[in-house]
C-alpha cells in the first residue's frame, strides 16, 4: 500500500507521468485493482490518493472531471466530447495527466466508436439512393453526427434522442448549421415511443450502464423502431477493458462490461433470432457493437 502512495507522490512531484511512465502507472493501477478486489483497498484509500494528487483531480483534468461528475452522472455529454476532441488542460502543470488519460485503451475506444459510426453511415449512404433515416439514442454531444454531416450528406436525416436537456442544448448549438437535417427529442430511451421507424437505430454508450434486465428491455423498445431491412447497432464495453480498474477505483466510473457471447445471449432473451445478429468490435477490442438486422 505504501508503495502505491509513494509512486503516486513521485508522479505528483515530477508534474505528472511522462509517456515513459505509462506502463509502470498501468501496473500500479492494476495493483490497486487487485487490492480493491481483495478487500484491502477501501474507498478512503482512493479518497486519500485523490487528495494527495490535488489539482490533478480537479475538474481541470480529464480524470478529475470523470470523478467529480459536474453534470450529475457518469459519462455525460461534456466528458465524452472532451474525449472525442482529446482535450488537454491549458494548465501546463496538469497536461501530463490528460495526455495519460487520452492514451488509455478505453478512451481510444470511445474515439474509435465515433469513427465506427461514421464509417457505418457512410457505407449505408453510398449503398442506397433515397433518404437515410437514423435514430441516435442517448446522443450526447453529437460530435459524431457533426463530423458526419460536415462531409455534405444531404440525404441524411438524424433524430437525436437524449433525456439530458443540457446535452440537447449543447448538441443543438454544435449542429446549428444542420438544423434542417437533425431533430432533437428529449425522452428516456427505455420509454421510447416514436411514431416512426428508421433505417438505423444507433446507441453508442448507453447500454453498458444497463443491468441485463434493462438491456433486454432496451433492445425490445428500440427494435420496434427499426424498419424492415434496417438494423440496430448497440455499443457496449467488453471484458477486454484494461483501464477498468482506473475507471472504477480511481474515477468511480462504473459500466457493465460484457463479452460478445453475453451480448448474443441478451439479444436471444429479447426474442431476436440468432440469424439476425452479430457482434463487431473497434480496433482496440474494448468497444463491442451488437448488430441486429430486421
The CATH class of the largest domain, by name, is: Alpha Beta
According to CATH, the fold-level topology of the largest domain is: Rossmann fold
CATH superfamily (homologous) name of the largest domain: Vaccinia Virus protein VP39
Just name the CATH architecture of the largest domain: 3-Layer(aba) Sandwich
Shape: globular
Number of DSSP E strands: 7
Number of domains: 2
Give the proportion of residues in helices: 40-55%
Radius of gyration: 20 Å
The rounded distance between the terminal residues' Cα atoms is 53 Å
Mean pLDDT across every amino acid position: 96
Content of β-strand: 15-25%
Question: Main sheet?
Answer: 7 strands, mixed
- Biggest β-sheet: strands ordered side by side in the sheet: 3-2-1-4-5-7-6
Tally of alpha and pi helices: 12
In short:
By secondary structure, the chain is α/β, with parallel strands linked by helices.
Describe this structure in words.
This protein has two domains: 103 residues, no CATH class; 178 residues, Rossmann fold. It is 45% helix and 16% strand. It contains twelve helices and seven strands. It has a seven-stranded mixed β-sheet, with helices on both faces. It is globular and about 60 Å long.
Sequence-ordered SSE layout with sheet pairings:
Layout: H1 2-13, H2 22-37, H3 43-53, H4 62-68, H5 77-84, H6 95-103, H7 105-127, E1 132-137, H8 143-149, E2 156-162, H9 165-174, E3 182-186, E4 198-203, H10 212-223, E5 226-237, H11 244-250, H12 260-269, E6 277-281, E7 287-293
Parallel strand pairs: 1-2, 1-4, 2-3, 4-5
Antiparallel strand pairs: 5-7, 6-7
Amino acid at each position: 500500500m505504501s508503495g502505491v502512495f509513494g509512486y503516486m507522490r513521485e508522479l505528483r512531484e515530477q508534474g505528472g507521468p511522462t509517456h515513459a511512465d505509462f506502463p509502470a502507472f498501468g501496473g500500479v493501477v492494476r495493483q490497486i485493482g487487485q487490492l480493491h478486489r481483495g478487500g484491502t483497498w477501501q474507498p478512503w484509500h482512493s479518497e486519500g490518493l485523490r487528495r494527495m494528487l490535488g489539482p490533478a483531480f480537479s475538474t481541470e483534468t480529464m480524470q478529475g472531471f470523470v470523478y467529480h461528475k459536474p453534470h450529475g452522472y457518469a459519462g455525460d455529454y461534456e466528458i465524452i466530447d472532451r474525449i472525442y476532441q482529446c482535450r488537454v488542460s491549458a494548465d501546463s502543470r496538469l497536461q501530463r495527466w490528460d495526455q495519460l488519460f487520452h492514451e488509455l485503451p478505453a478512451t481510444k475506444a470511445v474515439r474509435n466508436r465515433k469513427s465506427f459510426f461514421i464509417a457505418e453511415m457512410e457505407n449505408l449512404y453510398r449503398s442506397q439512393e433515397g433518404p437515410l433515416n437514423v435514430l441516435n439514442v442517448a446522443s450526447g454531444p453529437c460530435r459524431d453526427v457533426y463530423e458526419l454531416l460536415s462531409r455534405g450528406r444531404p440525404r441524411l436525416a438524424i433524430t437525436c434522442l437524449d433525456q439530458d436537456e443540457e446535452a440537447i442544448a449543447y448538441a443543438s448549438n454544435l449542429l446549428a448549421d444542420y438544423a434542417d437535417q437533425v431533430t432533437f427529442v428529449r425522452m428516456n430511451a427505455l420509454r421510447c415511443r416514436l411514431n416512426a421507424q428508421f433505417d438505423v437505430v444507433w446507441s453508442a454508450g448507453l447500454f453498458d450502464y444497463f443491468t441485463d434486465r434493462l438491456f433486454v428491455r432496451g433492445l425490445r423498445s428500440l427494435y420496434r423502431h427499426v424498419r424492415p431491412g434496417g438494423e440496430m447497432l448497440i455499443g457496449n464495453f467488453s471484458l477486454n477493458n484494461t483501464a477498468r480498474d482506473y475507471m472504477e477505483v480511481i474515477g468511480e466510473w462504473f459500466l457493465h462490461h460484457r463479452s460478445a457471447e453475453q451480448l448474443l445471449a441478451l439479444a436471444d432473451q429479447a426474442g431476436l433470432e440468432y440469424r439476425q445478429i452479430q457482434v463487431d468490435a473497434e480496433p482496440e477490442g474494448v468497444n463491442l457493437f451488437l448488430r441486429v438486422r430486421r
